[in-house]
Specification:
alpha/beta; 3-stranded mixed beta sheet; 9 strands; Rossmann fold; 13 helices
Length: about 350
C-alpha cells in the first residue's frame, strides 16, 4: 500500500462507488475515519451497519458542509455528475488549505468547469478523477472491497494542482488495487464518449426501439443471449446517464453522428445485397473484438490486460486507449445519494 496522508475522508454519496472505495481502503489497512454524507437516514444507517462509514451526516442539515469540511483531509464527490457544482459550492467557504477535493464522475470537462466556478482561487485543491469500474447493482449494499482491483482510474490534473495533491489522490486509488493513469479532461471525455457513453446510448435507444413495436412483448419473450449481452448496460441508472449525456454532449454527439454514418453504410450494403462489403465490415469488427478480448483477459481480471496494467501516459497512446476501452457494467461513477 502506497502511503497517503489522509486521516479523515468525507464521501458525498456513499453508494456503490463511494462505498467500495471506503471498503477497499479498509481492506488495504488504512485506519482513518470515513464520514458519509447522504440524503436519507436509511441509506446512511445501512452504510454504518455494514462498516462502510464511521460517521454519518445528512445532506439536508443546514450545517452539513461546514461540519463535513472541518478536519477533512480529502472530500470525495461520489454523486451524479449534475450535483458536482452544488456540492462544491457548498464546500467552498469551509475548505482548509490542506484539504484535497476529488470526484468519481464519468465526465471531466464539466467537473473542471464546476470546480473553477465554485472554488475560484481554491480550484487547485480539486483533483478530477474517474474510476472505471461498476456493477449493474447499485447502492451501498452493492459495494465491494475488491471492486477496483486491476481496474483503471483516470486522473485529469489541473495546472493549478500541487504535485503532492495529485500524488495523494493517485496513492489513495493505488491502495485499492487500481491502475492509475493521467490524461487531460478533454481527452478523457472524447475517449469515454466513444467507448462508454455511446454504447449506453445505443443500448437505451435499442430498447426504446423494441418497446415501440406493436408486438414488443412477443419479441421480448424470444430474446436470447445476444439481446441480453447488448442490452445489459441499459439497466443502468437513468438519472446518472441522463446527467452524463448532457454533460458530455459535444463529444457524444460527434460519436453518435459517426456511428450513424457507419450504420447508414451498413444499411446501404445490405440493401444492395453487397455480401462482400458486409463480410469485410463484419470481419474487421470480429477480428478487432477478438484481439481486444484476448488482451483484456490475460491478467485474469476482466477488462484489464497484464501488458497494459502499468501504462500511465498523458498523450493518449494506442496501448492506453486500449486499456481504458472496457465495457464497465453500467459505469456507476456517481452513485445516487438515495441508494
Amino acid at each position: 500500500m502506497q502511503p497517503f496522508s489522509f486521516n479523515k475522508i468525507v464521501i458525498f454519496g456513499v453508494g456503490l462507488i463511494g462505498g467500495s472505495l471506503a471498503l477497499a481502503l479498509r481492506r488495504a489497512g488504512w485506519t482513518g475515519t470515513v464520514v458519509g454524507v447522504g440524503r436519507t437516514p436509511t441509506s446512511l444507517g445501512r452504510a454504518r451497519e455494514l462498516g462502510v462509514i464511521d460517521e454519518a451526516l445528512a445532506l439536508n442539515d443546514p450545517d452539513v458542509f461546514r461540519v463535513a469540511a472541518t478536519g477533512a483531509d480529502c472530500v470525495i464527490c461520489a454523486a451524479p455528475v449534475a450535483q458536482t457544482l452544488p456540492l462544491l459550492q457548498g464546500l467552498a467557504p469551509w475548505l482548509a488549505p490542506h484539504t484535497v477535493v476529488t470526484d468519481v464522475g464519468s465526465t471531466k470537462s464539466d467537473a473542471v468547469a464546476a470546480a473553477r466556478l465554485a472554488l475560484g482561487a481554491k480550484v487547485g485543491q480539486f483533483v478530477p478523477a474517474h474510476p472505471i469500474a461498476g456493477r449493474e447493482a447499485s447502492g451501498v449494499d452493492a459495494a465491494l472491497a475488491d471492486l477496483y482491483v486491476g481496474r483503471n482510474v483516470v486522473l485529469c490534473p489541473l495546472p493549478e494542482n500541487a504535485a503532492a495533491s495529485v500524488a495523494s489522490v493517485a496513492a489513495m486509488w493505488t491502495a485499492t488495487g487500481a491502475n492509475v493513469a493521467q490524461m487531460s479532461a478533454g481527452e478523457h471525455d472524447a475517449v469515454f464518449a466513444a467507448v462508454s457513453h455511446l454504447p449506453h446510448m445505443l443500448a437505451f435507444s435499442f430498447l426504446e426501439h423494441i418497446l415501440r413495436s406493436a408486438d414488443s412483448a412477443h419479441k421480448l419473450d424470444y430474446a436470447g443471449s445476444g439481446f441480453r449481452d447488448f442490452t445489459r448496460i441499459a439497466a443502468a441508472s437513468p438519472e446518472m446517464w441522463r446527467d452524463i449525456s448532457m454533460a458530455n454532449r459535444v463529444a457524444l454527439l460527434e460519436d453518435i453522428d459517426g456511428y450513424r454514418t457507419v450504420l447508414d453504410e451498413l444499411r446501404g450494403m445490405i440493401a444492395a445485397g453487397d455480401e462482400a462489403a458486409v463480410s469485410a465490415l463484419f470481419a474487421r469488427a470480429s477480428t478487432a473484438r477478438s484481439a481486444w478480448g484476448k488482451r483484456h483477459t490475460t491478467s485474469g481480471v476482466a477488462g484489464v490486460a497484464a501488458s497494459d496494467s502499468t501504462v500511465s501516459p498523458t498523450g493518449g497512446s494506442a496501448a492506453y486507449l486500449t486499456a481504458v476501452a472496457e465495457p464497465h457494467a453500467g459505469d456507476r461513477s456517481g452513485d445516487k445519494f438515495s441508494e
